[in-house]
Amino acid sequence: MIGLYLEDIEAGRVVDLGSHHFTREAIIAFARQYDPQPFHLDEEAARNGPFGVLSASGWHTAAGWMKCYVATNQAAEAALRAQGHVPAPVGPSPGFTNLRWLKPVTPGDTITYRSTVMAKRDLNSRPGWGLVFSMNEGFNQKGELVFSFEGKVLTPKRPQ
Description:
Layout: E1 14-21, H1 24-34, H2 38-41, H3 43-47, H4 58-82, E2 95-101, E3 110-122, E4 129-139, E5 145-156
Antiparallel strand pairs: 1-3, 2-5, 3-4, 4-5
């Protein structure tokens, strides 16, 4: 997470990941390609759908989180390099749990994402690596929680 080695990551650390703005055009374009349900594609169909309004695919909301997460990591790595440090490589994720789409994301919404470190542990099966557990959330411009999931990411230990 953000170019840090396992030893440098502490539970409770909150990382602001930035925001993503959802436009009508982007919602429809994403839905056409990845989630072609009527309430993501057509305003008339959406009025008669479960939310009563055109709404972004939950996967679009998740993709917004990932875009912000990657950009935050890249900026943090660049800052570490500018200070003469070698950032830790970003490890892969073995998965996530408890993905929740709590409120619809509609045209004009701006979702602000954050990641909070919940815990970490060494991996016996992979010497030199650990696992970082995080709570990841997205809030709309009204401050309402619209998206969350519990994540895990493999994180290297500092080289000896």
